[in-house]
Amino acid sequence: MTEAVDGRAGGGLLVVGDVVTDVVARHRGPLAPATDTVADIRTVPGGAGANAACWAARSGCPDVRLLARAGRDAADWHDLQLRRAGVRPLLIADDDAPTATVIALVDTATAERTFLTDSGAVHRMGPADWSPALLDGVAQLHLSGYLLFAESSRQLALAARESAHEAGVGVSLDPASTGFIAGLGIERFLALTEGIDVLLPNADEASLLTGLPQPSDAAAKLSRQFPLVAVTLGAAGALVAVAGEIVARVAAPEVTALDSTGAGDAFTGGFLAARLRGATPAEAAEAGCRAGALAVGVVGGRPTTE
Fold first, then answer.
1. What does the pLDDT average to over 93-112?
2. Which regions of 168-220 does DSSP assign to beta strands (E)?
3. Predicted TM-score of the model (pTM)
4. What is the pLDDT of residue 306?
5. Which H helix or E strand runs over 235?
6. Would the pLDDT of 238 be above 50?
7. Which residues pair with 103 in a beta bridge?
8. Sign of the alpha-carbon dihedral angle for 143, 136, 304, 42
9. What is the DSSP letter of 181?
10. How far is CA 196 from CA 4, 80, 246, 270, in A?
11. Is 239 exposed, middle or buried (0-12, 13-18, 19+ CB in 10 A)?
12. Which DSSP letter does residue 219 get?
């Protein structure tokens, strides 16, 4: 196994990804076309990368950093929200594009959500935003998969991965979105993620990437390309695979779900924080599931900071 799979105790976590303004609309039952649907609507900070960073801090990682790009319109607000969550923000303020915005439609009857996404400043990140010096004191680099879906941010992600490999820093990635993967192409996505040490897909993403409907089969197949794979299964927990075999099946705590937004990001944050403490992959998956259970109990994708 590689050093990344064995884990590194201590050291910081650098997340490179997205910071997003989430508009969460919670409604009960189907939307009523061409008329009004009653909903509770809140504006909260989000973004897969930012959420994962906040949950890593919430899960006990003492040094979590986030490199992201936000519009000048909301950069200060996002900086404050990240600091309150225990994350050191490395935000680049963009004068020419707004902060990314996601409208999350959450059916309160099922806690399932549908996203409408405006990537805004996220995909304007580029290689010029990267420096190998950002890895000083870092033991794990985590890349948000959303970076791979535009040319400029894709080059940033590849540059960061190469710097991490040269520095002996492990690299993890969440695939981010089945819709965007399908648009990019599965073969191209897998080629771009070559050299990633830890892959953290959900069951749908794992199935899409392998063509295998059973999560255990998909996890096992992916672990022949990626040294460590943890597949989230929602309320059913998670699977961990190494070298083509399932090595752990982890149950999720039983909770009443309020909003599933950010549950996968929470798993990622909890998983990586545990690995940096020296946890085994199975122990890290348990920590990730605990974080995910907390996430579905709050509106939005971040831990509460009150």
1. 89
2. 170-174, 198-199
3. 0.91
4. 61
5. none
6. yes
7. 23, 116
8. negative
9. H
10. 10, 31, 19, 19
11. buried
12. H
